[in-house]
Design brief:
By secondary structure, the protein is mostly helical. The protein has one domain: Rhopdopsin 7-helix transmembrane proteins, CATH 1.20.1070. Helices cover 72% and strands 7% of the residues. The chain contains eight helices and three strands; from the N terminus they run H-H-E-E-H-H-H-H-H-E-H. The chain has helices at 2-40, 47-70, 91-124, 126-129, 137-142, 145-158, 163-177, 200-229, and strands at residues 72-77, 80-85, 186-190. It has a three-stranded antiparallel sheet with strand order 1-2-3, with helices on both faces. Helix 3 runs antiparallel to helix 6. The radius of gyration is 21 Å and the shape is globular. It comes from Caenorhabditis latens. Keywords: Membrane, Transmembrane, Transmembrane helix. The chain crosses the membrane at residues 12-36, 48-66, 98-118, 138-158, 205-225.
Length: 230
């Protein structure tokens, strides 16, 4: 039974790699086609929103490409979450890659929020929306970097593995992935110490992450409802 389960896990890993490559290929082609249509054929999209659409497509390509480079995986185990990379190479580089990949998710989410905010202003406060034209569009493009860097720095500082977290998950990693925890670029989040007390560094990241993600989703929901009902 253990051999069968391990064989299936290896098969899933192979599938995951194949799907990542297919996802990048599909994302690259469709986003490149979207950029082509936006630049050369869609006449009603002008100014700041046109730049936003192109930038969002570029983000999609970068995000999918970074997935191929960093090969990130997440594993939930009991009271722990393990973010690790299966890429071969420099340990420090690929640890940075994992954090950057997490950052890209926040950047994309923040940029979607900016688009909703711009649409809302265009409908209800067009004079204010005009402030985002010209050089003002760089505020739209620059804002997502701020929550992205907040998330990245918190993730990188507060989720570094230590002796306790590595001991907590090493058998899980060995049995499921045949990987020695000390040899894998990783971040490990464990909620509690052995005595039941909170691991405050990990909790600080979780609270900050929930706040950043939750605020942007709430903004999207609020702006969507306002545009729908008004």
């Amino acid at each position: 039974i253990q051999f069968s389960a391990l064989h299936k896990m290896k098969t899933y890993f192979q599938y995951a790699s194949v799907f990542s490559k297919i996802g990048f290929g599909a994302g690259f082609i469709t986003n490149l086609y979207l950029i082509y249509l936006t630049v050369f054929h869609v006449k009603k999209l002008v100014g700041a929103y046109k730049i936003m659409v192109i930038s969002f497509a570029v983000m999609g390509i970068v995000s999918a490409g970074w997935d191929l480079v960093s090969k990130p995986f997440m594993h939930n185990y009991d009271e722990a979450m393990i973010y690790f990379s299966l890429a071969d190479g420099n340990f420090t580089f690929f640890q940075f890659d994992i954090a950057f990949y997490a950052m890209m998710y926040i950047v994309v989410l923040s940029f979607i929020t900016v688009q909703f905010f711009y649409r809302y202003l265009s409908l209800f406060q067009p004079k204010m929306a005009q402030k985002f034209e010209g050089n003002g569009v760089f505020w739209c493009l620059g804002y997502p970097i701020v929550p992205g860097m907040v998330y990245f720095s918190s993730f990188y500082m507060y989720c570094q593995s230590d002796e306790y977290s590595d001991d907590y998950v090493k058998q899980e990693m060995l049995s499921n992935y045949e990987l020695a925890i000390g040899e894998v670029p990783r971040f490990v989040i464990v909620s509690y110490n052995a005595d039941g007390t909170l691991r405050w560094k990990n909790m600080c990241f979780l609270m900050q992450g929930v706040a950043v993600i939750g605020l942007h989703y709430l903004a999207i929901i609020y702006l969507s409802l306002q545009m729908h009902f008004q």
